[in-house]
Amino acid sequence: MSRERHMSGGGLGSPALRAATVAVGILAAVLAFAAPPDAVQGEAQRLMYVHVPAAWSAYLCFAAVLVASIVFLRTRSARAAAVARAAGQVGLVLTALTLASGMVWGALAWGTAWVWDGRTTSTVAMGLIYVIYLAARAAAHGRRSRTAAAWVGVLGFVSVPVVHMSVVWWRTLHQSATVLNGQGAPPIDAAMAVPLGAAVLTATLVTGQVIVALSRRELASRAGASETASQSSPTRRTTADEWEVT
Question: pTM value?
């Protein structure tokens, strides 16, 4: 087995994990369609089973950027840098999905797709922060610029609690938080909470596997480049971590 194939790890997790993810996803879909519609919002409320898992998974991605960036600053590990970059990429996609699903939900439930309230504005700001982070990572070529990019990943996480608490701190059209609202039991009926939990679990499993797959692919690509450089210059040995240590 080549070093590149070994580092790539074979894609999206083990077959058992992929099968479990598919099973939970099917269960979540069935439960979401079987759940009763909201008494006020009607069928539009079913978008919650997409919107909330997307937002939750985006938060997790940016938490992963935070942790991996701290590890990188302490160890200069290429693996940590790859995880941070992959998590940022996935988190940005999920932020876009959160905004898009929220627009559709708002149009159906409230008659407007976009309002520059606290939640929407802070979510857009969070997305822009991680656009800047990924741009800084892409442009970083020296030790100092890579360190600066990692600090953007660390400090950028401040935007996550701001987004989550925006519905508490500012007047907003957006409803209060469905989960993690600081009020004990979530204000949601069990018939809706169970499918929502299954949807959140599915999104979490998929997100984690995609991050791992992307980070392994980046490491494999860099390992292949290092091997090519070593073959072209026998007197110079390179490692997968060299690009971060220098």
Answer: 0.84
